[in-house]
Specification:
Strand content: 15-25%
Radius of gyration: 21 Å
Largest sheet: 5 strands, mixed
Distance between the termini: 41 Å
Structural class: alpha+beta
Order of helices and strands: HEEEHHEEH
Helix content: 25-40%
């Protein structure tokens, strides 16, 4: 199937359970029809190309990828929430941007605290020994 056909099948599956709108090329807004505390709105931030990547890389077929998206939408807590595509998955977020990664923040802070010019990348030998010097070994 083509890219747009796959996108259409995702929309069809979402429409079978939710009210669906597409406010932008990379946005799908789904609103639950039946929830005890009123409608719940979830916005998927994903392009048709990213959807195709999500289908082809971790799942290989449309059906399990659609099931994944439906499960993620259903698991989103009440209130306006976002599911942002990132590296073959939908990441829950309070905004249309990916949430900050605390580990990334920690590494950035360590790098900023190091004296200028003191950081360097080092390759270790394949046998687990110390740093490798010279050209890489021929394999």
């Amino acid at each position: 199937m083509g890219l747009l056909e796959d996108w259409g099948l995702l929309l069809q599956a979402l429409r079978s359970r939710y009210a669906v709108s597409e406010p932008a090329e990379d946005r799908i807004v789904v609103t639950s029809r039946y929830r005890a505390h009123g409608p719940v709105e979830v916005e998927l931030v994903m392009t048709p190309r990213e959807w195709r990547d999500l289908v082809s890389m971790p799942y290989g077929r449309l059906e399990p990828a659609i099931d994944y998206v439906l499960a993620e939408v259903a698991a989103t807590p009440p209130g306006r929430s976002y599911l942002v595509y990132h590296q073959y998955e939908l990441v829950p977020s309070a905004t249309p941007e990916l949430p900050r990664d605390p580990e990334e923040d920690r590494v950035r802070a360590l790098a900023e605290s190091a004296p200028p010019g003191s950081l360097q990348w080092v390759a270790y030998r394949p046998d687990g020994g110390g740093p490798q010097s010279g050209p890489p070994p021929k394999v």
